[in-house]
Write the structure tokens for this entry.
Amino acid sequence: MREWLYDIFRERPWWMSATMVFCAFMAFVYMPWDIFVKPVGQDSEVWFGILFKGYWAKLFAIPHWFVYAAGVYGFRRRRPWMGFWATAYVAQVAFGMYLWTALSTGGFSGILVGLFPALPFAGLAYAFWNSRDYFEPASLNLVTRYGEWALVTGASSGIGTSLAREIAAEGMNVVLSARREERLLALAGDLERDFGIKTRVVAADLAERSGQTALLDGVKDLDIGLLVNNAGLGYAGRFDLLDGEQLRRLVSVNCEAPLVLAHALVQGMRDRGRGAVFFTGSIAGRIPLPLHAVYSATKAFDQFLGEALWGELRASNIDVVVLEPGSTETEFQQVAGEIAHSGQSADEVARIGLAALGQQPSVIAGWFNWIQANAASRLLTRPISAHVARSVMAKQTPEDLI
Ligand SMILES: NC(=O)c1ccc[n+]([C@@H]2O[C@H](COP(=O)([O-])OP(=O)(O)OC[C@H]3O[C@@H](n4cnc5c(N)ncnc54)[C@H](OP(=O)(O)O)[C@@H]3O)[C@@H](O)[C@H]2O)c1
């Protein structure tokens, strides 16, 4: 805990951290009290130096609350818009301070006296403007951060192909794995030609221990610095109507294989003092999904494994991230036997996941999925969440499997 807090504050200059803590106090303590508890008659709010009282103050407190909440998020997650956001808001405070003091003092002395409270805020606004580069997202630089080689499972299609492409574009050599070898060979040729990197193809069935071992044997002479546990599948339908052996294989691909690969390859990363493990989870890992029960259970496993390893491996300089896509346009729906529905592009989802590597333990792909996942897992009760999920899944499941 102490280390984690230390890491959070070490990420940025002390004065930015102090502003972040102030924003957190305002967003979580002061503004809720100000809006919901403070009597209307006593309330006042200042925007651009203009004083609002009573119900107007209550109304204009809401954007203030939003400003501070966005401030906490922007500082913590180092969002690119934060440089402008912080500068504009603090400059507005400086202007308000000046105007207010100057007008209440009056005359020529007001013009001078107004500068005293305004100058510290103007200085802070200037400091934010000068530091706006800090908020630009760091370039991936995967080779520098993790080494020469990445291993991507499930690279023959969908999100895995996109991840392999993004990683190769960073100059990292890639081992491509899945069962369909001809697709992997075609992708390997494309990546070598487009990005001048080295590739290796290891075809393996990850539902079997023999396939997991064959993959590890196929990379044992390489220092794998980035492991991408992406291969995965689900089957839509009522639990008792699905084939038991198929469900066992599903659990092996989605849970056992990532565990076995991570366990074997993390040892080398630890010895080399750097590395990364990427899990493709799903928002289904946060929501119990009737008619996709085993799939959502396997994704909950991936989510917990990944987030727990994030906390465990930080001390060894090994980054871990769980990417949580929602519906994405890949072959997944066809394999799962779902009724076709729209989704995000695999490229977009892959980019979101890689950008979060080294930044946070898990990332939900896109705002719409974020709202869905958080509403289902944090706002609704478990029974309501399961009922709502069932009615959504029923629309995507063929009638004979319901
Ligand atoms: N698409 C979505 O809506 C969605 C949403 C949330 C999460 N996800 C997750 O995203 C990941 C990638 O899925 P996708 O959407 O890209 O689906 P996809 O296009 O069907 O790709 C799945 C990949 O997994 C590989 N795979 C499946 N069974 C395998 C096995 N027994 N052994 C080795 N490899 C196997 C497939 O390769 P071969 O068939 O060639 O073996 C393929 O490369 C999965 O973990 C999935 O759970 C997908």
